[in-house]
Amino acid sequence: MRSVRARAALGATVVVALAVVAAGLGVLLVLRANLTDQAGLQAEVAARETAGQLALDVPYDKLETGDGEDHPVQVTDEDGRVVAVSEDLDAISGTGTDRVIPQPSPAAAEKGDDGDRDDDDDDGASADPGRGEVSTDEPHFSNGTATVDGDRAAYRFASVEATNSAGLTLTVHAGAPLAAEQRAVASVRGAMLAGLPVVLLVVAGVTWLVTRRALRPVEGIRREMAAITASEDLTRRVPEPASRDEIARLARTTNETLTALEASVDRQRRFVADASHELRSPIASLRTQLEVGAAHPELLDVAGAVADTVRLQTLAADLLLLARLDAGEQPGNARLDLGALVREEVSQRIGDRIPVTVSVPEPGGLEVTGSRGQLARVIGNLLDNAERHAESSVAVEVRAERGGVAVAVTDDGAGVPEAERERIFERFVRLDDARARDDGGAGLGLAIARDVAGRHGGRLTVAGAGERGARFELWLPGSR
Description:
Blueprint: H1 4-55, E1 73-76, E2 82-85, E3 89-93, H2 106-111, E4 133-134, E5 140-148, E6 151-163, E7 169-177, H3 179-231, H4 246-295, H5 302-326, E8 334-337, H6 338-347, E9 356-359, E10 367-370, H7 372-389, E11 394-401, E12 404-411, H8 445-455, E13 459-464, E14 470-477
Parallel strand pairs: 9-11
Antiparallel strand pairs: 1-2, 1-7, 3-5, 4-6, 5-6, 6-7, 8-10, 11-12, 12-14, 13-14
Helix pairs in contact: 1-3, 4-5, 5-8, 6-7, 7-8
C-alpha cells in the first residue's frame, strides 16, 4: 500500500475498530454485570422469603414459593438432602445438588411431624416460632439452569441459610431468570455488530477526505520540485501554504534549501569561471615565452617562465585545497603548539620585503587541535597578505584568549575599508583592481584562511590597526 492516504485511512479505521470493539466489550460486560446483579437481588429476595417461612416452622409442603417458573426454589438440609422444592420443578443445576425429589429429613423424622405438633396449630406453624432465625450473612450466588414444567432456562441462584425452632439449619436456593439479561446483551451486541461496519466506513471515508485535503500542499510541493529538477531552474520555489503546520514548515525549509543550493551552484560557477580566468593568464604567458624560446633561444626569459610556473603551481595548489574543503574534508586531530608553528613559519620566510616581528609568550597554554599543514597555510597566507600591503612593518602576536589561542597579524599598509571587510574573504576578490596580477595574488589566500579557520572551530576577522594598516586576527579553540 504505497499511498499515504490509504495507509492513514487504514490505520485510523483499525484504531477506531479496536477502540469500538474494546468499548463495546466494556459496555457488554458492565450491562451483563448490572443485569446479573439485579437478577441476584431478586433471587435473594425470593430466597429470604422462603427462609423466613422455614424459620417460622412452616411445613415443607406448605411453603409458599410463588411461581416456580419465575423463582424456582430448592431447600436442602445440613447433609445436602433435598427436603423441599417449588412446584413443577423438574431439574436444576448450579445449586450443589441436582436432586428435585424431596426426601425425609432424619431430624424431622425424630421430631415427629404428626405427633409432636400442637392440635390447635392447624396451619402447621411452630408452637414457639420465635426460636427460628434467618442468617444475615451475605448470600452465596451462582449461575445455573432449571427446568420448570418442561421449560429449561438459565437462572441466577441465591443461597440463604435459615434455622428453625428445632435448631435444624436449612439452605434455601432460590433463582431468578437470566432471560432478560441474555436478551438485553444479545440486543446490544447485535446493534453494535450492525453499526460497526457503518462506523468504520464513515471513519475510513472521512480520514481519506481529510488526508487528501491535508496532503494537497505536499502534492503541489512534489510537482514543483519535479519541475525544478526537469528544468534545472533553481530560481523557482515551491508554494508555501498559509497555514503554520508541518507542511508549511516543510515548504519553507525546502525553499531555504533551494536558495542555499542556488547560491552554492552560483558560487561554484563563479569559482570555475574565475579559476579558468586566473589559470589562463600564466598559462598563456608561459606558452608565449616557450614559443619565443623555441624560435629564438637567445630571447628566452627563463626567470619569467619560472615565475609563471611557480605562480601556476601555487594557484593549482590553492584550487585543489579549496576543492578538498568544499568536498567536506575534515581537519586532523593532532595536538600542536600554535606559538611554535608561528615561529617556524616566520623563520622559513627568506627574502621577505619587510622583516616580521614575532611576539610569542613562553611555551604552554597555546596548544590547539587540527591539521598542521592547513594551519601553517593559514598563517602563511596572512603573512603574504601583510607583506603585500605593508609599508614598513609586519608584526605577529600569539596569545591565549578566552579558552583558545589568538594569532594577530598586523601591517601598516592602507588598511581595509570597513564596508569591504567581509568581501575580502570571498574567493577571487582583490580590492586593488589596478594592481598587476604579477604583483598581487589570485584572491584565494584569505578565502582559504577563513574556510580553514571555520573548519577548525575558529574564526578569522579583520579590523583596523590604529590610524593606518589592518589587523587580521585568527582565533582557534584550545586543545581539550
